[in-house]
Amino acid sequence: MRGAKKKKILIVDDEVFLVRALKDRLVLEGFSVISAADGEDGLKKAFADNPDLILLDLVMPKMDGITMLKKLRADERGGRVPVVVLSNMSNAQSMDESLASGAQEFLVKVNNSLDDVARIVRRVTGGGS
Per the domain annotation, does 129 fall within a domain? Predict the structure, then answer.
């Protein structure tokens, strides 16, 4: 489809190599990708850039992912954007709190490949371009 707008993904994670790998993979899938290294910057970018989906880590400097998610959901600009938590935290409490705070999915980083993440992003957003 000519002139179709690419779906925009915001990756909020402080792991530089993971962000780079996810960004490269999602760009290949036809997405536009922006990133933030902490929850504070992630929240600003979420409001300014209106992403179609946010991939969100939980443990980050300045503002953790749960706090960012709650602030996002408390604002009308962030109330509907799908959020997929992608974290090393694999305990039930982290998962329950993430889902209760408005995340659509909870993925444990070590249990999911780039292919898995790309597949979920495609499913949640309806595709790349």
Answer: no
Residue spans of the chain under pLDDT 70? 1-4, 128-129
120 in a structural domain: yes
CA distance 39 to 66: 9
Domain count for the chain, please give it. 1
Torsion of CA 50, 54, 62, 49, to 10 degrees: -20
Burial of 69: CB neighbours in 10 Å, binned 0-12, 13-18, 19+? buried
What per-residue confidence (pLDDT) applies to 13? Answer: 95
The residue written with tokens 């305990």 in the block is 91
Q: Supply the pLDDT for residue 57.
A: 93
Token pair belonging to 58 = 């939980």
pTM of the model: 0.91
Task: Report yes or no on 3 lying in a domain.
Answer: no
